[in-house]
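Researcher: Before we compare anything, I want clean individual predictions. No alignment, no superposition, just each chain on its own. First chain goes here; please echo the sequence and then give the structure tokens.
Model: Echoing the first chain and its structure:
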Amino acid sequence: MASTGSTIGDLFRLDGRVALITGAGGAFGRAIACGFAEAGARLFLTDLDAARLDATVTLVRDAGGICASTPGDAGTSADVDAVYAQLDQEFGQIDILVNNAGRNPMQGKPEAFPFEIWEDVLRTNLTGYFLFARAAGKRMIERGRGGSIVNVSSIASASSLGRGNLAYGVSKSGVNQLTRELAVEWAHRGIRVNAIQPCQFLNEGWQRMVADPNRSGLVQRVLSGIPLGRMGEPNEIVGPVLFLVSDAASMVTGALLPVDGGTLALNPTGSLPVPD
């Protein structure tokens, strides 16, 4: 719903809203949770890794945020149902969903790609997004006050990364179309559905690669494709997601927002300018 008579700062506030964030124990989920809490949202967090989830909950509560949580597998229907049962009990509403949980166990050549890995990645990265969105949409429709969903996609959804990212790229391409379909289906319900497309960010995995001299070639290859010349920091994902879920984006739905330092703007055959 569009906001009228508000200051610019008010447009980005989330007071009175309940936000569910999946994958809340990871770098993106943790940063988004802390950012949303600062913006006034009450949080319900979930992650497969209970220890990492607890660490995020502690950070949010130590900063004065209101937060509840339960661990669960984002790609398992029974676990998704359990998450929502607990959320209903704790808060009785959902206004925001951030589909962030994901897996990318990179494998070898497509002709030898393990079927069980393929199934696991699509189950978590795509089916899980559908399950969480379906349950959120049902509750938002019943409440009659609309809502906002943001799906975390990837630059891998728009062009191939190679390097064993087959299942990951396919799953994220599916996330893009899921975003469009739900945005159109639920627009008349006041539910906005958007996605972000991050490039490589300095999560735990990329931090290890940057620190590994044996992976310096890959790191330089990645950096050569990011016009801003660096990987993202996890806290740099907060602003784009906050914008999309807030009243500042009240006329934005079905959008795929690159958060990629210009990666998707650079043609693979192109070259970055030489610094002066």
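Researcher: Okay. Second chain, same rules.
Model: Second chain and its structure:
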Amino acid sequence: MFLKCHSRVKDGKEHRYWNIVENRRCGRGKFVQRQVLYLGEINNTQRESWCRTIEVFDEKRERTMPLALFPADRQLPNFAAGFGVQVRLKEMELHRPRQWGACWLACYLYEQLGLDEFWAERLPDSREGTCWGHILQTLVCYRLIDPGSEWRLQRQWFEQSAMADLLDEDYSLVEKNSLYRCLDKVLQHKEQLFGYLRQRWQDLFGARFEVLLYDLTSTYFESDPVFEETDKRQFGYSRDKRSDCVQVVIALIITPEGFPLAYEVLPGNTSDKTTLGAFLSKIEEQYGKAERVWLMDRGIPTEEVLSEMRSSDPPIYYLVGTPKGRLSKLEADLLERPWQSVRPGVEVKVLPQEEELYLLAQSQDRLNKERAMRRRQLKALWKRLGQLQKMKLKARELLLKLGEAKGRYRAAWRLVDFQLPEATTDGMATFSFALNRQKLRQARRREGRYLLRTNLCGREPAELWQFYIQLVEIEAAFKNLKDDLALRPIFHQLEHRIEAHIFVAFMAYCLHVTLRARLRPLAPGLTPRAVLDKFATIQMLDVHFPTTDGRTLILSRYTYPETDHRLLLEQLNLTLPAQPPPRISCRGKLLNHD
């Protein structure tokens, strides 16, 4: 990188503009120059009839003052004696490169969603001057941009980011105890935030809440499993395949567009089917009675809850998946029904029942996928069983290896009949196996098909199908929370901080959803993570210019946006803020270059 000056004549006057540029190889040994930082205009002493000044923060006087900048190789004119400063341009230094673009975008989303105003009323500054609102904003933006622990936030990430510049704070903002104390203050406002977000989703994106998606997931801990009985950290069925760790269950409600409405943290041993009744009452109490449609996967609703939903006033509608055992009971009646095409590659059969409607859906894409998975598993299992049959193993060893094969190829195992190992004269064990063709035919008939159940009896099959496939939205929400926002594993030891950690991740997901909602009409294939990573390449640097009087002029500048950045800014209708005002150090004061 090097300093470059270019002149421009405007209104009969010569203007000199200074930039930091770099040479970039463009192929065939050629180089092109790219502007990295724009530093502004430095006066030319040849024209005394005019003089440009800038507002500079004087660290000694602790106030802003106008200064006129002149190069050190030219004499300071008499008329600028009181406010002119000569800078040594050739001794320029670059300090503290830090990530700026993604931090700015995250703060913009935070303010667009109105979270700064919401928390300003509920987290006032302390008497010691601690700004709890800025601490929480830092925690949420950190979770969205580059999630990690609070320890990493304090020791590494904050210093390498421009959050301090954007919030006009210093390193004391992320003192370790302040981060944890902030977590202690936010959880009591969770229910109020749910109501506030509902209105914001409606105001910003016209969101509607007649259709709600409900599902549960679990997240585990890296902590010793010695807790009180009332603690929510418990062993249970782990969707993360970590049955060795304690966990909590998270129940989430979102709209089909992905806008989160509410969530709840439940004990890790909570059964899915015991949660729905409480959530129905929670939503009704918070948002009033209305004709809502609940979309759920199988295993969540019980017969008692579904009966209550049908008999409520106004009725609560539902569309749920059903266990495959119910398909066996209705299979004879469904065989007599004709198939109806609802979209290319998807057919349904409709079976009306008392107060309900059953919908058997068949997707060609899903059939091909499940059939390929079954064939792959069955082929691998058959090969493994053939290998085990040739081995000379004792009965105990053979049973262990068969158990391993069962765990690896569980879906295909149900299609094979086994004769248990028997000891031979030499002490070794043998077994036989055969394909159960009746079970295979039944599996083939059910591949790509699933049975839905609803009390929306007056709706068209195509509309019901469209409702159900929206459940993928809540699966994507859990994937974003766990992978993109790094919700798991959780390292906190206090139960209320565990819930506060999930609450911060929920707010970060709200920023994620806000960005995705803005991208959807412009570029549906562009993900929020891709946009954040792209903006993260915009850096901020401190440009130091020594002056002839022993001080240092400091210009904090974010790098010039490239073509991709400018295209995104234009499409999202965003405008980058002005560069921060310069600062000038005191005479004889050493600067901290860390």
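Researcher: What stands out in the second chain?
Model: The two ends are 20 Å apart (CA to CA). Additionally, The first helix runs from residue 101 to 112.
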